[in-house]
Design a protein that fits this description.
It is built from 26 helices and 18 strands. The longest helix is centred in the last third of the chain and has 32 residues. It folds into 5 domains: 92 residues, DNA Primase, Chain A (Alpha-Beta Complex), CATH 3.90.580; 128 residues, DNA primase DNAg catalytic core, N-terminal domain (Alpha-Beta Complex), CATH 3.90.980; 116 residues, Dna Topoisomerase Vi A Subunit, Chain: A, domain 2; 63 residues, no CATH class; 136 residues. A hairpin with a 2-residue loop joins strand 3 and strand 4. Helix 17 crosses helix 19. By secondary structure, it is an alpha+beta fold. The strands form 5 sheets. The chain has a 5-stranded antiparallel beta sheet. Strands 15-14-16-17-18 form a 5-stranded mixed beta sheet.
C-alpha cells in the first residue's frame, strides 16, 4: 500500500521510531496516570485534562472534544502540515533517510509540480520586491509610500510592485520556467494578445504558508476606474487554499515557537495586519478579505486559546464578527471583541490615534457574548413586546451555546436589565433553549443511535480483543463480519495484517480509516475491558452468541430456500438441514 508518495514499509519504520509520548511532550506538558499520559487538550480550551495518550497503542484521544489520532496526525495538527510533510519531519528527527526511488509516478509528478510552483512564486516575489527597490519614483512605489509603510515592514512582508504587464514573462523565461508552468503557478495569464503579468501594474502583497513560503499573491490596484478591481488574488492551486491560509500566520507560528504568543488578534485584511506589525503589535493575523472558515479556526487553535476579533467597524464588520464568533467558539477558543468606533479599521485607527491607543483598545476588548447581546439589542425596539420577544430568543440562543452555568447567570442579569423580565422566567426559557440539540449534537446523536443490540456490542468487543491481541483465532469470527459496514472493514484489515504476519496497533488504524468521534471504530479503540477473570467469561459468552448468530443466519437461509423449493427432494434436503441447525441452536442455548 502507498500512502501519499511513501511506501507502507517506510511509513511503518517512521512510525515505529517515533514514540508519540516523546513527540507530544514537545508541544504539551504530559502527566502519567496509570498506563496513560494526560494533558489539557491542545485542540480546545479546557481547565481539566481530558487529552489522553496511550503508549501501548501509540494514539491519542481527547474525551472533551473527541479529537483522536496517531503520531502523524498529531504532527499534522500541531504544525499545520499535510501527511507527507509530517512523515518527512518525523523521519528527519529520527535520522531516517527519506526514500526517493519508492515514489509512484503520479505522486512524483505532483510533487515536482508543487516544487516548480514554489520556485516560480519565489522568483516572482523577488522580481516584484526588486521592482519596488529599483523604481522608487514609479506611481506604484509612490502609492506604497503614501500608505506609510517603512523599509523594515516592506522587507518583512516582501511587498513589491508590478510596473507593467510585460516585464515579468522574459524574467521568468530567463530562469528556464516554461509558459505552462507560469500559468499553472497563477502569475501569468493568457489571452488573444498572448501572455501577460496576471498582476500587471499593481502593488503586490505575497501570501505565505505557515513555513514562510510564498504560495499566492494579492495585487492591489492603484487606479480609481471601476474596471480595475481593487484586489486581484491568486486562484486556488495545488499549494494555495484560501480557506486554510491566514495572512501573517507564519509570523505568529514563529512567536509560538519562541513562547511569545498567548493571544491572536484577527483583523480583516492584509494591510491591517501589516500596519499592526509595523506598530509593534505582531500577534496579528488576517482573513485576506474572505470570511473566517472552520479550517482557519482549527489552525488558530493550534497556536492559542485566546483570540480578539478586531474587524471593520461598519455593519458588515459587525455581521462578520458574529459569524466569526460562532466558528471560533466551536473549536473551543476564548473570544473577545474590539470595536473601533472612531475608525473604520486598525490601519486607520493606528494612523489617527497611534499604537498605544490601539493596544489600549485591545486590552479593553469585551467578552464575545457581551458583544452579541449589545449588538442584538441595537436591532430591536425593546419597548415593543414582539421585538422584546425576538431579542430574548436571540440572546438566550447565544448564552446557551457559549457559556458555562456560572457565566449564564451573569449574562442573564444583563438581559434582564434590558427587558425587565423576572430572572426565573429567563432561566426557564434558557433551559428550554439549551435542551434543543445543536447541529453537532444531532450529528453525534445519529452516530450514537446505532442499534445498541447484542450483535453490535459483540462485534465491538471481538474487534477490540483482536486489536489489543487478547484473542488469536480471528478466522473463527468471519461469519459475523459479512455486512458492508465499517466494523466489517476493520475486521478485514486486522485479518489481512495477521495473515501477512505484519504488526498492527491502534496507530495503524488512523492511516487507513476516517475515525470520527463516537463512531463504531472509535468505540472499538476506546473499548474498556473488564477485569481478566470477567473478560475470560465475557469472551466465551460473546463467542457463544456469535456462533448462535451464525447458526440462526444459516437456518434462516434454509428456511427461505424451503419456501422456494420446487421438488420434494429439495424440500426434504432443506427440512433436514433446518432440523440439524435447530438442534445445534438448542444445544448452544443450554
Amino acid at each position: 500500500m502507498i500512502k501519499g508518495s511513501f511506501s507502507s514499509d517506510f511509513i511503518e519504520e517512521v512510525r515505529s521510531k517515533s514514540d508519540i509520548v516523546d513527540v507530544a511532550s514537545k508541544y504539551i506538558t504530559l502527566n502519567r496516570r496509570g498506563g496513560s499520559f494526560w494533558a489539557c487538550c491542545p485542540f480546545h480550551h479546557e481547565k481539566t485534562p481530558s487529552f489522553s495518550i496511550k503508549p501501548d497503542g501509540q494514539f491519542y484521544k481527547c474525551f472533551g472534544c473527541g479529537e483522536s489520532g496517531n503520531v502523524f496526525s498529531l504532527v499534522m495538527k500541531m504544525e499545520n502540515v499535510d501527511f507527507i510533510t509530517a512523515v518527512e519531519m518525523l523521519a528527519k528527527e529520527n535520522n531516517i533517510p527519506i526514500p526517493t526511488q519508492q515514489e509512484n509516478e503520479e505522486m512524483r509528478l505532483k510533487k515536482q509540480q508543487r516544487e516548480k510552483m514554489y520556485q516560480i512564486l519565489k522568483a516572482t516575489s523577488d522580481f516584484y520586491y526588486n521592482n519596488l527597490q529599483n523604481y522608487p519614483n514609479s506611481k506604484q512605489a509612490q502609492y506604497v509610500a503614501s500608505r506609510g509603510l517603512n523599509a523594515q515592514t516592506i522587507q518583512k512582508f516582501k511587498i513589491g510592485i508590478s510596473l507593467n504587464f510585460d516585464s515579468l514573462i522574459p524574467y521568468l523565461k530567463k530562469l528556464n520556467f516554461s509558459e505552462a508552468d507560469m500559468i499553472s503557478a497563477g502569475v501569468v495569464g493568457k489571452n488573444d494578445m498572448g501572455l501577460y503579468d496576471f498582476y500587471g501594474g499593481r502593488v503586490i502583497f505575497p501570501i505565505f504558508n505557515s513555513f514562510g513560503d510564498v504560495v499566492a499573491f494579492s495585487g492591489r490596484s492603484i487606479e480609481q476606474a471601476p474596471e480595475h478591481t481593487k484586489y486581484k488574488n491568486t486562484p486556488q492551486s495545488l499549494i494555495f487554499n484560501k480557506s486554510d491560509i491566514l495572512f501573517g500566520y507564519n509570523f505568529a507560528r514563529e512567536l509560538k515557537k519562541e513562547h511569545l504568543l498567548d493571544t491572536l488578534i484577527i483583523v480583516e485584511g492584509h494591510i491591517d495586519v501589516i500596519m499592526c506589525h509595523q506598530a509593534g503589535v505582531t500577534n496579528v493575523i488576517g482573513c485576506m478579505g474572505t470570511a473566517l472558515t472552520p479550517l482557519h479556526a482549527k489552525n488558530i487553535k493550534r497556536l492559542v486559546d485566546n483570540v480578539i476579533l478586531c474587524l471593520d467597524g461598519d455593519n458588515a464588520g459587525a455581521l462578520a464578527t458574529k459569524k466569526a464568533i460562532d466558528i471560533l467558539k466551536q473549536v473551543g477558543l476564548n473570544v473577545k471583541v474590539t470595536r473601533l468606533e472612531l475608525a473604520k479599521d486598525p490601519d486607520e485607527f493606528i494612523k489617527k490615534f497611534g499604537a498605544n491607543n490601539f493596544v489600549e483598545q485591545l486590552n479593553n476588548a469585551m467578552d464575545c457574548v457581551d458583544f452579541v447581546l449589545m449588538d442584538a439589542a441595537k436591532k430591536y425596539d425593546l419597548n415593543k413586546n414582539a421585538d422584546k420577544t425576538n431579542y430574548i430568543a436571540e440572546a438566550l440562543n447565544y448564552i446557551s451555546k457559549f457559556s458555562t452555568p456560572a457565566e449564564q447567570e451573569v449574562y442573564l442579569k444583563e438581559v434582564q436589565q434590558l427587558v425587565k423580565i423576572p430572572m426565573d422566567a429567563l432561566r426557564k426559557s434558557l433551559v428550554q433553549t439549551g435542551s434543543q440539540p445543536k447541529t453537532e449534537d444531532v450529528r453525534a446523536t445519529k452516530t450514537e443511535n446505532v442499534p445498541n443490540n447484542y450483535l453490535i456490542e459483540s462485534k465491538i468487543m471481538l474487534l477490540a480483543s483482536m486489536l489489543y491481541k487478547k484473542v488469536d483465532n480471528f478466522e473463527n469470527f468471519s461469519g459475523l463480519f459479512t455486512t458492508d459496514d465499517e466494523l466489517s472493514e476493520l475486521y478485514k484489515f486486522i485479518l489481512q495484517k495477521k495473515q501477512e504476519n505484519k504488526d498492527f496497533n491502534v496507530s495503524t488504524l488512523f492511516d487507513n480509516f476516517d475515525i470520527v468521534d463516537k463512531s463504531l471504530i472509535d468505540r472499538v479503540i476506546n473499548y474498556v475491558f473488564p477485569s481478566e477473570d470477567v473478560f475470560t467469561s465475557f469472551l466465551q459468552d460473546t463467542i457463544k452468541r456469535v456462533k448462535l448468530y451464525e447458526l440462526k443466519q444459516e437456518k434462516q437461509r434454509y428456511t427461505t430456500l424451503l419456501s422456494n423449493a420446487k421438488t420434494d427432494s429439495e424440500k426434504v434436503e432443506y427440512l433436514t438441514k433446518i432440523q440439524e441447525l435447530t438442534e445445534k441452536i438448542n444445544k448452544e442455548n443450554l
